[in-house]
TrEMBL record:
Residues 34-89 form the Cytochrome c domain. Transmembrane segments: none annotated. The keyword 4Fe-4S does not apply. Residues 1-22 form the signal peptide. The lineage of its organism: Bacteria, Pseudomonadati, Pseudomonadota, Alphaproteobacteria, Rhodobacterales. Keywords: Heme, Iron, Metal-binding, Signal. It comes from Paracoccus siganidrum. The keyword Heme applies. This is Cytochrome C. GO terms for molecular function: electron transfer activity; heme binding; metal ion binding.
Length: 135
């Protein structure tokens, strides 16, 4: 019996060592998410000139001018809502929703309204990335 217990403990220890040595999966960065989800239409620099822009049905927005179009203020909650898939009452919107792709662990985030709201971490990061490329 003791041999079985020792073998099981050894097996668990070995499994733990293998897991510790396995390559860690890197979480997608905001720039990775932008390049995977947005760059085809909005372009690598966010100017609205991506390779799929011509097929989008409407000219993709220049994402470097979001703040300029809003009086110099970056509308965080609006941007995150748009990325997530909320169309703000518009029925047919050529922009796909990315909510399911950005779901996952949440962080408490204040989008400027004073309320700490649980928000998907990747959605916050992508919004902050877009805020960082404003001209």
């Amino acid at each position: 019996m003791r041999a079985v217990v020792m073998a099981a403990a050894g097996g668990l220890g070995l499994a733990g060592l293998i897991a510790a040595c396995a390559p860690e999966q890197r979480a997608a960065s905001a720039q990775d998410d932008y390049m995977a989800l947005c760059a085809d239409c909005h372009g690598p620099a966010g100017k609205g000139d991506g390779p799929a822009a011509a097929d989008a049905g409407a000219t993709p927005a220049d994402l470097t001018r979001i703040a300029a179009r809003n009086g110099g203020s970056f509308p965080r909650a609006q941007v995150m809502s748009r990325i997530y898939g909320y169309t703000m009452g518009r029925g047919e919107d050529p922009m796909p929703s990315f909510g399911d792709l950005l779901d996952g662990p949440t962080v408490l985030y204040d989008a400027g309204d004073g309320l700490q709201t649980p928000t998907p971490r990747r959605l916050v990061a992508l919004s902050e990335y877009l805020e960082g490329i404003q001209e």
